[in-house]
Design goal:
The structure holds two protein chains of two kinds.
Chain A (H helix, E strand, L loop, with lengths): L3 E9 L5 E10 L4 E5 L6 H9 L6 E6 L2 E2 L10 E4 L11 H11 L4 H14 L15 H13 L5 E5 L7 H18 L2 E6 L2 H7 L2 E6 L2 E6 L1 H6 L4 H6 L6 E8 L2 E4 L2 E4 L5 E7 L5 E2 L5 E10 L3 E8 L2 E8 L8 E5 L6 E4 L7
Helix pairs in contact in A: 2-3, 2-4
Chain B lengths: L12 H28 L3 H7 L9 H10 L10 H32 L5 H10 L9 H10 L6 H5 L6 H13 L2 H9 L4 H12 L1 H16 L3 H6 L8 H9 L1 H4 L6 H31 L4
Helix pairs in contact in B: 1-15, 3-15, 4-5, 4-8, 4-11, 5-8, 11-15, 13-15
The chains are: A alpha+beta, B mainly alpha.
């Protein structure tokens, strides 16, 4: 258990490429942070810098009270779970979990107790004598977590741990990891490119883009008040609709129609989430429907508004579908972004 | 008991032809061995007069006994058992030494950010172009200069550097996932521990495969042992066979053909045994990887 404090940390590779732009943040004790972003955004690099697998070019990294910049991964009091599990293939489950303790010179009894405890917690006890190759993906993932747990680290690091699992198992493991982290009350950093994982698991989400942190916030903050068009379109499925518009005297015009929205004159991006748009005959915005996707509880209507792509998530009931529909944008669901910088207005 | 029923596939003509070819090839390979075996069972006079024998005689036991335990050679000090020991020392020393050396080299090249790692690898690799036969004079010069002629060291050490082994281990290490190294680092395993605890166990099928190849290669060495050992106490089997037939040219007695054949048979056995025992590992090492 520990806090993590990061000051102006950055990573530049010898060839001059900057993988992580200077970033500062703090993580509270027992908090689960999710780093999310598209591939190549630097989220894994950032995590690996915290783990000590990548050198830190500038800045300070503190875990607990210690500055750990120059410490070996083994001395940082962390544990890491890898995407492909990285279990030692020639060792049994028990030995896999015990290896880190053994290297730290723990006594045989202490190791046995710890391993038994962790195995119990993860319901791995019947599998302790198996080899990783005899386990299913989910079981391997649990062994990888067991290996992390037995060491009682100050900080858990997860590098896309669920990417290799199928959808159903992923959901189950998501809940399991979250429960475990709560129960152990350990600080954790979790990297994923899956925004659903980020939304469901995080205490706070860090959205990364092109090596920099775009926004830090709780899942609902990220969802309700995205700081930029990048965050708005990255978080949420399907992504937020963004329409090019013109602000003009307290109104934003999109094509022929306009919505009431006080802001400075100029070109803006008007954002609204597909699930917050209402289809109604009383609406003021015309929508041209081209494709329907059934989701069961609702359906996605793909089409255009004023010639720009637009998606509506409509409840699966009453409305009569036609090629031309009228939409209503609730004012409190509207987001405005600067057309040039993409920043929230 | 349940009765096992099997779907009998009709035998096709092509199957018969395939098998006929295989059996023929097998017989062709085995026949000389059979011939060596039958020839061993005759006495020297018969062999000297009539040459190779196709049937069994009654001297088998005597010939093997004489080959293994009767002292012979110029010094009357060496018997087949000593030569067998020498051959084993050469074969095993050669194989083990090569494996240790080439694994260590590959480990350094793959896992440490050495400045000229790739260059070093290619330099090692090009030594494939310089087999012992090409560098035999300088090698001899160096070994005798170090006073290592007529020692096991002189017999084994100059042959140890192995580009092939280094190459195989390098390719294998490159295929070990990066995360494994990282997980081990987080688990507190330093370079030495990682090598012993993770890499060596992972490479064991690879090690077995290379051990077989190198053991047989070392066992069959002829040129280098002939050159570097003059002391009969260090003669290997392959070398000793020739020593026995040498008396043909000296001409004052009937050469001990029977013993020579017996030694030839004995010289064949260890490689066969090794291949039989290690063959499942051998195949595994070459075709599959456990990662």
């Amino acid at each position: 258990m520990a806090t993590v404090s990061v000051t102006d940390i950055s990573k530049t590779y010898p060839n001059g490429a900057q993988a992580v732009r200077p970033a500062s943040f703090d993580i509270a004790d027992g908090e689960l942070i999710v780093l999310v972003g598209p591939s190549g955004c630097g989220k894994s690099t950032l995590l690996r810098m915290v783990a000590g697998l990548e050198d830190i070019t500038t800045g300070d990294l503190r875990i607990g009270e210690r500055v750990v910049n120059d410490l070996d991964p083994a001395e940082r009091d962390i544990a890491m779970v890898f995407q492909n599990y990285a279990l030692y293939p020639h060792m049994t489950v028990a030995k896999n979990m015990a290896y880190g303790l053994k290297n730290r010179g723990a006594s045989k009894d202490a190791i046995a107790t710890k391993v038994a405890e962790a195995a119990e917690m993860l319901s791995l006890t019947p599998l302790l004598d198996r080899r990783p190759s005899q386990l299913s993906g989910g079981q391997r993932q649990r062994v990888a977590m067991g290996r992390a747990i037995v060491r009682d680290p100050a900080l858990f690091l997860f590098d896309e741990p669920l990417s290799n699992l199928d959808a159903k198992l992923r959901h189950q493991m998501r809940v399991e990891i979250r429960n475990l982290q709560r129960r152990l009350n350990v600080t954790a950093m979790y990297v994923t490119h899956d925004q659903v994982e980020a939304m469901t698991m995080a205490d706070r989400i860090f959205v990364l883009n092109a090596g920099g942190i775009e926004q830090i916030g709780t899942p609902s903050e990220i969802y309700r008040t995205p700081a930029s068009t990048f965050v708005a379109s990255f978080m949420g499925a399907p992504p937020m609709n963004l329409l090019n518009g013109n602000a003009d005297g307290g109104k934003v015009r999109v094509g022929e129609s306009a919505v009431q929205m006080p802001c400075a004159d100029g070109s803006v991006l008007l954002g609204i989430r597909p699930e917050e748009v209402a289809v109604s005959p009383m609406g003021t915005i015309p929508f041209k429907l081209t494709l329907i996707e059934e989701l069961g509880a609702s359906r996605l209507l793909h089409g255009t508004v004023a010639g720009q792509d637009f998606v509506v998530n409509a409840p699966n009931d009453d409305i009569a579908l036609a090629e031309e529909l009228m939409l209503e944008f609730p004012t409190n669901a509207l987001h405005l972004f600067d057309a040039e910088t993409g920043k929230r207005l | 008991m349940t009765k096992i029923t099997r779907n009998k596939k009709p035998i096709r003509l092509s199957d018969i032809v395939d098998h006929a070819i295989l059996i023929l090839g097998g017989l062709l390979m085995l026949f000389p061995v059979y011939l060596a075996f039958t020839t061993t069972s005759h006495d020297n006079i018969t062999l000297s007069r009539e040459g190779l024998q196709f049937g069994f005689g009654d001297q088998m036991g005597h010939n093997f006994y004489a080959a293994m335990f009767e002292k012979g050679g110029f010094s009357e000090q060496i018997d087949g058992t000593t030569m067998l020991m020498n051959s084993l020392i050469l074969g095993i020393g050669f194989a083990v030494g090569k494996i240790v050396l080439s694994m260590a080299a590959a480990y350094a090249i793959v896992y440490f950010r050495l400045r000229f790692a790739t260059f070093a690898f290619w330099v090692i690799f090009t030594t494939i172009l310089l087999p012992l036969e090409v560098r035999i004079l300088p090698s001899y010069e160096v070994v005798t200069g170090l006073g290592m002629a007529n020692t096991y060291g002189g017999l084994i050490v100059p042959l140890l550097a192995s580009a092939t082994g280094t190459f195989f281990f390098r390719q294998f290490f490159l295929s070990v996932p990066e995360e494994l190294v990282e997980a081990a680092r987080i688990d507190g395993a330093g370079p030495g521990k990682f090598f012993i605890d993770i890499l060596v166990p992972l490479s064991r099928t690879m090690i077995a495969a290379i051990f077989i190849i190198m053991f047989v290669y070392g066992w069959n060495q002829y040129l280098w042992p002939t050159l570097i050992t003059t002391d009969e106490g260090l003669f290997t089997l392959v070398r000793g066979i020739k020593q026995i037939t040498q008396s043909i040219y000296e001409g004052n007695q009937i050469p001990e053909y029977g013993q020579a054949w017996a030694l030839a048979i004995i010289a064949m056995l260890p490689p066969v045994v090794i291949v039989i025992f290690f063959q499942s590992w051998f195949v595994k090492g070459l075709v599959e990887s456990e990662k």
